[in-house]
């Protein structure tokens, strides 16, 4: 949509008719909704959930969502008119609006921030202020005195239809150009308008078909062949078309035609002959709106028949759903949880409902989509951040219309406009990837999915081989149902896990760079047997940092308190927090020495060294650096599945639910960095990572092995991993958390204070912590303290941790007290520039 919108809507005539007002959600971090007046002629068009265009402030025109309609004019300001309505029907459903309000309330953010995160960019509008000559202004007749700068603007507008504000500033080469625009408006020489463009546009393809009378009238097609016999190139085009569209078998097939590209991309056909046939009227060309997803086919196969063990789990889940809204499926890796999910999805669709299938990683989506497409065909929609704006908008519209009955996607899928949801599946529910960190809303998709299902009367199934302590606690206390799957599918057995003491191996000179002799020999053996290997290193890049051998200089980020990681492929040093990067220096900037050494290792170095140590290995890497392009996940997984690569090196991406039948060995290269982390969830996370990545081995009957390299093989967590003893881990962790007051016994809120000056950040945090302590109590407020990474993006950080006992705290009241304390701090003159972020349930 593109149109010019006047800021001043014509006034309504005096009348007794009802004047309506709309509260709208602007895509801005505003604490309150804004009220606009609905023009009388739009009364029937404006409804809750539609997008409308409004003027906000002096220059902005924005699209926003109508949240409420009433007859109450705002008391504190004069309501402006809504300028236009963009939708015939609401694009936000009633359950969605309730969910968005809950997200804003629970995660302490604004509705505008939620809407901004929820709507695909293609469903938002872009606007830019522009000026043009007033329609009634006549330079030959109107005797208006202009300043020289105004004359310059008028002259430019006589040669251009319109100018943006930026272009006016560039034209006059001054900063204070707005006064001349204002003056020209008052002199009625120009008007301001906003060019608003609706970004979403459907995908259109050019198609061709044989003109109708040639296929409808008997004998016409044969006569056409005779006419084209002297023109062999044109005849080839027609014959090629009929191979794609056999109209002699069914003339109705001709109506669909084929994409023109199918003919023009054929090197054996003449493009000019195709166009000649179109000009002659033999072929007719037409446009057709098509899906952006290559899934327009019926389902090809039924779900795989469930084993006795899977069938029992499914029946238990359905039985528990009769009593409880939420069930946790605790199944060991390779137990066949996905097949149970598929059967439950089919059951939900047969009942007429919609299904959301959440996954923590795009990489997982890429593999599981293929399996689901074969069962659900074009009922399946996919939603994740690697899709273009238009693709995401198409899925949004498809869910709204009911075209997509099943959606598989990552955390942002919880924002989609489901209106008849009956089942939500959250796979790998323990994953921290479900948590959004920046910007707001800082929501957890697992918790939000639970509320989403509750609001729509749907059931939620959480699945994991290594459930979060909080989720398992909810089952143990009877709040949720619990179903266990303790056996792997088919004949597959859990892999054998072996520890390699790298400290001892170094002493015996059995380490080849970062690989033990045991790991290298086992990789070589697997490759000889034409089996595959996964290697896990929880750090990307070539090396965590570089250092000068002479003076110990280490390059640091200019904007964050971290060292720069070395990325060999691009020969650069990169900050993994803010993205700052610089070229790798040839010599030390501090002392001039050329002895710069890379310290530690990341996935890029593992890949490089493995290629040198085992030249016969076909190695591929899967981390954030290699998966930036849209289809890179799919390509890496496809290459590994097909055997084009036989060793996959990766970060946490390779640990999460990937299913490769030929993987018989998994290597964990540096286990200690995962265990020794300053966080109360460190042991839980380490167990989850080790068990999950180990579970990639031996999934289809082949015996699997796992080699964990560590400098501390006596670490207790390894015994739990080797025996797959989740229960002992849970009992230990839940006792520790009860003793020290951590979730699930408390709710935690982390308040981060940020400022460009470290002393200002510290003083603001001290004042805020005192106010919070006065409001909530000394036992509930910890800090302030300087975090491990104390500066990010040029802002110094201070953190305050708030613990709220779950059983005795009124959460809504406590959040109100926190919000008030933050508001009070911002009123203080000394802390005007301080930024404060509240993160509810930090991970």
TrEMBL record:
Its EC number is 5.6.2.4. HAMAP family: PriA (MF_00983). This is Replication restart protein PriA. GO terms for molecular function: 3'-5' DNA helicase activity; ATP binding; ATP hydrolysis activity; DNA binding; zinc ion binding. GO terms for biological process: DNA recombination; DNA replication initiation; DNA replication, synthesis of primer; double-strand break repair. Zn(2+) 2 binds at residues 557, 560, 575, 578. Residues 583-757 form the Helicase C-terminal domain. One of its GO terms (cellular component) is primosome complex. It catalyses: Couples ATP hydrolysis with the unwinding of duplex DNA by translocating in the 3'-5' direction; ATP + H2O = ADP + phosphate + H(+). SUPFAM superfamilies: P-loop containing nucleoside triphosphate hydrolases (SSF52540). Initiates the restart of stalled replication forks, which reloads the replicative helicase on sites other than the origin of replication. Recognizes and binds to abandoned replication forks and remodels them to uncover a helicase loading site. Promotes assembly of the primosome at these replication forks. Binds 2 zinc ions per subunit. It holds the Pfam family Zn_ribbon_PriA. Residues 318-485 form the Helicase ATP-binding domain. Belongs to the helicase family. PriA subfamily. InterPro entries: DEAD/DEAH_box_helicase_dom, Helicase_ATP-bd, Helicase_C-like, P-loop_NTPase, PriA, PriA_3primeBD, PriA_3primeBD_sf, PriA_C. It is an enzyme of class 5 (isomerase). Keywords: ATP-binding, DNA replication, DNA-binding, Helicase, Hydrolase, Isomerase, Metal-binding, Nucleotide-binding, Primosome, Zinc. Its cofactor is Zn(2+). Component of the replication restart primosome. The lineage of its organism: Bacteria, Pseudomonadati, Bacteroidota, Cytophagia, Cytophagales. Zn(2+) 1 binds at residues 548, 551, 588, 591. CDD domains: DEXHc_priA (cd17929), SF2_C_priA (cd18804).
């Amino acid at each position: 949509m593109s149109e010019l919108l006047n800021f001043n809507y014509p006034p309504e005539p005096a009348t007794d008719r009802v004047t309506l007002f709309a509260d709208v959600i602007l895509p801005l971090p505003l604490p309150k909704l804004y009220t606009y007046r609905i023009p009388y002629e739009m009364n029937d068009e404006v409804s809750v959930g539609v997008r409308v265009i409004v003027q906000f402030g002096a220059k902005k025109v924005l699209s926003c969502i109508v949240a409420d309609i009433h007859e109450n004019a705002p008391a504190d300001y004069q309501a402006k008119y809504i300028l236009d309505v963009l939708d015939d029907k609401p694009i936000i459903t009633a359950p969605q609006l309730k969910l968005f309000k809950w997200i804003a309330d629970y995660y302490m953010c604004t509705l505008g921030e939620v809407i901004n995160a929820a709507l695909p960019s293609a469903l938002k509008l872009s606007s830019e202020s522009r000026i043009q000559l007033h329609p009634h202004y006549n330079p030959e007749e109107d005797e208006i005195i202009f300043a020289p700068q105004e004359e310059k603007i008028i002259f430019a507008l006589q040669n251009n239809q319109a100018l943006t504000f930026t272009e006016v500033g560039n034209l006059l080469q001054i900063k204070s150009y707005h006064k001349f625009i204002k003056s020209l408006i008052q002199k009625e020489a120009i008007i301001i308008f906003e060019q608003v463009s609706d970004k979403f546009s459907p995908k259109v393809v050019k198609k061709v078909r044989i003109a109708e009378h040639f296929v409808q009238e008997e004998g016409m097609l044969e006569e056409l062949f005779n006419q084209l016999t002297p023109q062999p190139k044109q005849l080839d085009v027609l014959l090629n078309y009929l191979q794609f569209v056999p109209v002699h078998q069914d003339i109705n097939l001709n109506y669909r035609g084929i994409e023109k590209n199918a003919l023009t991309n054929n090197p054996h056909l003449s493009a000019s002959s195709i166009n000649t046939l179109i000009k002659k009227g033999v072929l007719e060309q037409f446009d057709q709106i098509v899906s952006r997803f290559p899934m327009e086919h019926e389902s090809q196969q039924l779900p795989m028949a469930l084993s006795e063990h899977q069938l029992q789990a499914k029946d238990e889940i359905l039985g528990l759903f009769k009593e409880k809204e939420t069930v946790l499926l605790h199944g060991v890796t390779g137990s066949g949880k996905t097949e149970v999910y598929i059967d439950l999805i089919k059951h939900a669709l047969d009942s007429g409902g919609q299904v959301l299938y959440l996954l923590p990683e795009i990489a997982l989506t890429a593999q599981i989509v293929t399996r689901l497409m074969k069962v659900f065909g074009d009922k399946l929609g996919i939603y994740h951040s690697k899709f273009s704006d238009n693709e995401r908008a198409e899925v949004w519209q498809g869910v709204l219309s009911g075209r997509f009955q099943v959606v598989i996607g990552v955390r942002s899928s919880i924002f989609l406009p489901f209106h008849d949801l009956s089942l939500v599946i959250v796979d790998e529910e323990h994953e921290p990837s479900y948590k959004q960190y920046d910007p707001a809303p800082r929501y957890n998709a697992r918790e939000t999915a639970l509320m989403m299902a509750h609001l729509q009367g749907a059931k939620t199934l959480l699945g994991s081989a290594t459930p979060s302590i909080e989720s398992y606690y909810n089952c143990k206390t009877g709040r949720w149902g619990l179903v266990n799957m303790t056996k792997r599918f088919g004949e597959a057995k859990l892999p054998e896990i072996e520890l390699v003491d790298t400290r001892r191996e170094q002493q015996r000179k059995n380490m080849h760079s970062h690989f033990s002799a045991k790991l290298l020999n086992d990789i070589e053996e697997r490759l000889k047997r034409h089996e595959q290997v996964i290697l896990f290193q929880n750090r990307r890049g070539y090396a965590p940092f570089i250092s000068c051998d002479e003076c110990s200089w280490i390059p640091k980020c200019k904007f964050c308190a971290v060292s720069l990681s070395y990325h060999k492929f691009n020969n650069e040093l990169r900050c993994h927090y803010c993205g700052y990067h610089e070229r790798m220096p040839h010599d030390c900037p501090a002392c001039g020495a050329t002895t710069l050494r890379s310290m530690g290792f990341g996935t890029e170095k593992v890949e490089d060294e493995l290629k040198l140590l085992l030249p016969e290995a076909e190695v591929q890497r899967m981390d954030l650096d290699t998966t930036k392009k849209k289809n890179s996940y799919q390509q890496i997984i496809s290459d590994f599945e097909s055997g084009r690569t036989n060793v996959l090196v990766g970060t946490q991406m390779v640990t999460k639910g990937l299913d490769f039948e030929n993987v018989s060995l998994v290597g964990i290269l540096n286990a200690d960095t995962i265990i020794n982390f300053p966080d109360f969830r460190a042991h839980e996370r380490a167990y989850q990572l080790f068990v999950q990545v180990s579970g990639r081995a031996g999934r289809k009957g082949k015996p699997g092995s796992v080699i964990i390299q560590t400098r501390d093989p006596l670490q207790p967590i390894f015994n739990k991993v080797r025996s797959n003893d989740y229960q002992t881990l849970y009992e230990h962790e839940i006792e520790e958390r009860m003793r020290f007051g951590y979730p699930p016994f408390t709710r935690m809120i982390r308040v981060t204070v940020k400022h460009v000056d470290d002393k200002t950040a510290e003083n603001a945090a001290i004042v805020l912590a005192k106010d919070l302590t006065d409001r909530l109590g000394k036992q509930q407020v910890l800090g302030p303290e300087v975090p491990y990474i104390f500066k990010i993006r040029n802002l110094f950080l201070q953190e305050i941790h708030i613990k709220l006992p779950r059983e005795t705290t009124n959460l809504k009241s406590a959040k109100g007290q926190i919000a008030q304390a933050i508001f009070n701090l911002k009123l203080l003159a000394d802390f005007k520039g301080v930024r404060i972020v509240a993160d509810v349930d930090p991970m």
